[in-house]
UniProtKB/TrEMBL annotation, chain A:
InterPro entries: ExoRNase_PH_dom1 (IPR001247), ExoRNase_PH_dom2 (IPR015847), ExoRNase_PH_dom2_sf (IPR036345), PNPase/RNase_PH_dom_sf (IPR027408), Ribosomal_Su5_D2-typ_SF (IPR020568), RNase_PH (IPR050080), Rrp41 (IPR011807). Catalytic component of the exosome, which is a complex involved in RNA degradation. Has 3'->5' exoribonuclease activity. Can also synthesize heteropolymeric RNA-tails. Belongs to the RNase PH family. Rrp41 subfamily. GO terms for molecular function: 3'-5'-RNA exonuclease activity; RNA binding. It is found in: Cytoplasm. This is Exosome complex component Rrp41. Its EC number is 3.1.13.-. Its main location: cytoplasm. One of its GO terms (biological process) is gene expression. Keywords: Cytoplasm, Exonuclease, Exosome, Hydrolase, Nuclease. The gene is rrp41.
From TrEMBL, chain B:
Belongs to the RNase PH family. Rrp42 subfamily. It comes from Marine Group I thaumarchaeote. Non-catalytic component of the exosome, which is a complex involved in RNA degradation. Contributes to the structuring of the Rrp41 active site. InterPro entries: ExoRNase_PH_dom1, ExoRNase_PH_dom2, ExoRNase_PH_dom2_sf, Exosome_comp_Rrp42_subfam, PNPase/RNase_PH_dom_sf, Ribosomal_Su5_D2-typ_SF, Rrp42_archaea. Keywords: Cytoplasm, Exosome. This is Exosome complex component Rrp42. It comes from the Archaea.
């Protein structure tokens, strides 16, 4: 609430943000599919200063066995930050924050993955945050979708994600680390554009109900931009001989 | 609980059939929370406490206030920590041991609603900047589990905080020393109220009970403050919401939250 005090000007008189962006502009996003040899599918994303690796294994046998479900496959997600990914060294053991993010990212992906086609198996998604710069859960979710598709796992849609929020009394797209620390609200959104379904939604910070609505709409615009980048990453890996060489 | 039992499947179809007629399995309206009963001051050893019954879900929340070191980057603010635990006597499926992800999420969502609303003015909890502050710990235990622990815990913690008494400490020789018999009311600024809604098919229901909880497609918890603004949101469950459904949920959270806030106000007036 209110955010912490800071010397940084979050929004100058020309409506330009601390990192030079306009209010409705995302940071630079690049995604590469198929970056790991051993994983069934993988992706690497750079989302502003965030650098994240996603690896997918499966569908494969479930261990421990009692977790397996005869009706459907299960999805397991681990979101994990490297000790060197943030300013002060982070204890490598999973924190409560990481456990919660793992859960919400899993629940954001589940509607997209056709797990019912693989009963008694597990699909494991590992998300490793090599460098964190605000908005890691959205960036990790973006990479996870591409890695799942790269693994050839049937999906209803890609889940794309981007945050929106509020800083210096303005609604902003893709909240960076400074804006998260000192801003007024941060709302990560995950979206399946073809199905019109929002599968990740969190908020901390104060918004009126009208701002809440507008903030979602703004975030969805960012999601759609990321969606194109995700599709391009897959195109580049699987169809590059025709278009991109 | 990975396997949906045949009973659950039958229950789900019954619940869905009823919803088609605009009814719920316990006869409530879709936007109607269960009866909320709040008793405060139930644990005299705590600095503040509340027992909340939301339908058949029961929570005891206790507040402990004690000097602590500030967080390294927040030397000018006191500490607020909120926990939750499903006691093994609350439900046959409840187990002892390290907290599972769903309980960690529960505690963090309740914490976030209170923290982000700015309910507690933590700047008043500083004894010596960067060195010593007052910590307020809200520990919620679930004693009976009939669904929607998010809201029940939130109401219990909020009622306990409002009615808590903050002891006085002063710094002497770099150490906080308790000044006897000088308690003050907790410095609160607003009353955050969380409202959890579930989606089953196309229907949005407020405050799902445990039977309904078992067949939700997705759920969302929205916390509003006394001004009717939204301060925290958490979506959960293995499916999503459309934009229109989310707008409806935000409106519901304000309307239902207002009524709940009145109940909390009434229950905490005597304690303050």
């Amino acid at each position: 609430m209110g955010g912490r005090e800071t010397d940084v000007v979050l929004l100058d008189e020309n409506g330009i943000r601390s990192d030079g962006r306009k209010v409705n502009e995302t940071r630079k996003v690049t995604i590469k599919a198929g970056v790991l040899k051993n994983a069934s599918g993988s992706a690497y994303i750079e989302f502003g200063g965030n650098k994240i690796l996603a690896g997918v294994f499966g569908p494969r046998d479930v261990h421990p066995k009692h977790m397996s479900n005869p009706d459907t496959g299960i999805l397991r997600v681990r979101y994990h930050m490297e000790p060197f990914s943030v300013g002060e060294r982070k204890n490598p053991a999973p924190s409560r924050r990481e456990i919660e993010i793992s859960k919400v990212v899993k629940e954001a992906l589940e509607p997209a993955v056709m797990l019912e086609k693989f009963p008694r198996t597990a699909v494991d998604v590992y998300l490793e945050i090599l460098q964190a710069d605000g908005g890691t859960r959205c960036a990790a979710l973006d990479a996870a979708s591409v890695a799942l598709a790269d693994a050839g796992i049937p999906m209803r849609d890609l889940v794309c994600a981007c945050a929106a929020g509020k800083a210096a009394d303005a609604l902003i797209l893709d909240v960076n680390n400074e804006e998260d620390q000192a801003g007024q609200a941060d709302m990560p959104i995950g979206y399946m554009p073809n199905l019109g379904k929002i599968t990740l939604l969190q908020l901390d910070g104060v918004l009126t109900t009208d701002e809440f609505k507008k903030c979602i709409e703004l975030g969805l615009e960012g999601c759609k931009q990321v969606y194109e980048i995700q599709k391009n990453a897959l195109r580049e890996k699987y169809f590059s001989s025709g278009d991109n060489d | 609980m990975a396997n949906l039992s045949i009973i659950d499947k039958l229950k789900r179809s019954k619940i869905l059939d009823l919803l088609q007629e605009g009814k719920r399995i316990d006869d409530r309206a879709l936007d109607e929370p269960r009866p909320l009963v709040i008793d405060t001051g139930v644990i005299p050893h705590a600095n503040g406490s509340a027992r909340v019954r939301l339908g058949d879900t029961e929570i005891v929340s206790g507040i402990k206030v004690q000097p602590d070191r500030p967080f390294p980057d927040m030397g000018d603010k006191g500490i607020f920590i909120c926990t939750a635990e499903i006691l093994p006597l609350a439900h046959p499926s409840a187990e002892t041991g390290p907290p599972q992800p769903d309980v960690i999420e529960l505690a963090r969502v309740v914490d976030r609603g209170i923290r982000e609303s700015g309910m507690i003015d933590l700047s008043q909890f500083v004894l010596e900047k960067d060195k010593s502050v007052i910590g307020l710990f809200a520990d919620n235990v679930i004693t009976d589990h009939d669904g929607n622990l998010f809201d029940a815990c939130s109401y219990a913690a909020v009622a306990a905080i409002i009615t808590s008494k903050i002891p006085k400490w002063e710094m002497k020789d770099d150490k906080p020393v308790l000044i006897e018999n000088q308690e003050s009311d907790a410095p609160t600024t607003t009353i955050p109220v969380s409202v959890t809604m579930g989606r089953i098919g196309e229907f949005i229901i407020v405050d799902p009970n445990l039977d309904e909880w078992g067949c939700l497609d997705a759920r969302i918890t929205i916390t509003t403050n006394s001004d009717g603004n939204i301060v925290a949101v958490q979506k959960g469950g293995s499916d999503g919401f459309t934009f229109e459904q989310l707008v409806k949920c935000s409106e519901l959270s304000v309307a239902v939250g207002k009524k709940i806030r009145d109940v909390i106000k009434q229950a905490t007036e005597g304690g303050k």
